[in-house]
Amino acid sequence: MASIRRPHSPAKSQHLLRHQHPFAASSPPSSPLRHSSSASSPRHHHPGSRHPFLFLLTRRPLPRFAAFFLLGSFLGLLHFLSHLPLRPHLPVPPNAAASSQLNQLQQQQLPRHYQQQESNPGGGAAPAERGGDKLLIVITPTRARASQAYYLSRLGQTLRLVRPPLLWVVVEAGKPTPDAALALRHTAVMHRYVGCCDKLNASAADYRSHQMNAGLEVVENHRLDGVVYFADEEGVYSLHLFDRLRQIRRFGTWPVPVISDGGSNVVLEGPVCKHNQVVGWHTSGEGNKLQRFHVAMSGFAFNSTMLWDSKLRSHLAWNSIRHPEMVEQGFQGTTFVEQLVEDESQMEGIPADCSQIMNWHVPFGSESLVYPKGWRVATNLDVIIPLK
C-alpha cells in the first residue's frame, strides 16, 4: 500500500526554523536536481575527520614542541646510560661445594674484627652501631692577652684531630674579640664563642667561675646530650684522653700532673684506683687534706644530662649545678664535684687502675703577660704606636 506524505508549506517551514523547533529543517528544501547531483558526486572528507589528534598536532605549535622535547630528552638519557660502567656480577655457584669455597674466600679477604662480628650475630651490635660516638662538649675559659691566639690555636689543633662529634665552647672574659674569633675559625673545629661578665671588675682567677658557669648555661639551655669536659687553654692533652671520655657513663676522673709556676716541682692530683673503682686520692700537701675530693679542674668529666635532667642528679635538692663564685683558692674542683656525686662509689676511674697520664697542666707564666701600654696589634701584624 502506497504511503502518502504530506509536505509542509513553505510558510510553516520558515516559522519552525525561526523558533528553532527540533524537527525543523536546517536548510531550505532543495530541488530534486540538486539532490541527485550531490548524491552522484563523490563525498569530500575533511583531513582531520579520521585522525583528529594528528590534525591538532600538525596545526598547533605547542604540542609539537612538547613532543620533540620529550623525544630529545629520551634520546639524551639513552646516550648517557650507554656510557655508564657496567657492574661486574659474581657468578652464581652451581652447587653447595662452590658456595662453601666462595664463603671461605670472602672470610680470608675480610679483616679479623669483621669476622668476629659476623661469627656472633646474636651477641649484639658493635658499640659504634648501637648508638654512635657520644658528643664531646669541651668548655674552655679564655681572656684577651698577648698569647691568647697562640693558646687557642694550639688547643684547637689538638681538638681538630679528635674524632667527631665534638663541640668546643669558648667563653671570653668580657666581650668577644675579633682576634680570638679569627683564631677559632682557623682551627676548623665546630665551636661556640660567647662572652660573659663584661661589666665585672675582677681578677683573672675570679673570672674563671663565671666563665665556666656561662659554658654550663649553654649546655643546659640547649639540652645537649654528651660528655662535658673543662679544658684549660694552657694544658697539654693526648688524643687517647678524648677516646676515654666517650666511655664515661656518669662521672669519670683520672690523675693529672701539675707543674709549678717555676717549673721545678710536679704535683700529681687525682684518684688512686683499683681497676675502675676509686679507692683514694693523691694529695699535694698538708693544707689540702681538708678537701673532700682532690681533683683538678681538667681531671674529671661528667654526663651532660646531669645538668638539665634532675632525675639523674645525686642531690635532688640542687636547683642547678654551677661553680661557686666565692670559694677559697684550690677548692674549686671539690666544691663542684660535690654537686655531681655523693661519694667515690659513683665515680669511674679511667683508665683501668688509673695507670696512665693523659693530660698535663703546664702554666707557661702568661698570666701577667699583657699588651704593652699604648700598643695595638692589628690583624695584619703591623704595630701602631702613638706619636709623642
Overall description:
This protein has helices at 10-18, 32-40, 52-59, 61-82, 96-109, 112-119, 127-130, 148-160, 178-187, 204-222, 239-245, 305-308, 332-337, and strands at 135-142, 166-173, 191-196, 226-230, 236-237, 251-253, 256-259, 266-274, 277-282, 300-303, 348-349, 359-360, 376-377, 383-384. The chain is an alpha/beta fold and 388 residues long. The protein has a domain at 133-253 and 294-343: Spore Coat Polysaccharide Biosynthesis Protein SpsA, Chain A (Alpha-Beta Complex). The strands form 4 sheets. The protein has a 7-stranded mixed beta sheet with strand order 3-2-1-4-10-6-11, sandwiched between helices. A hairpin with a 6-residue loop joins strand 7 (256-259) and strand 8 (266-274). 21% of the residues are buried. The model is unreliable at 21-45 and 109-130 (pLDDT under 50).
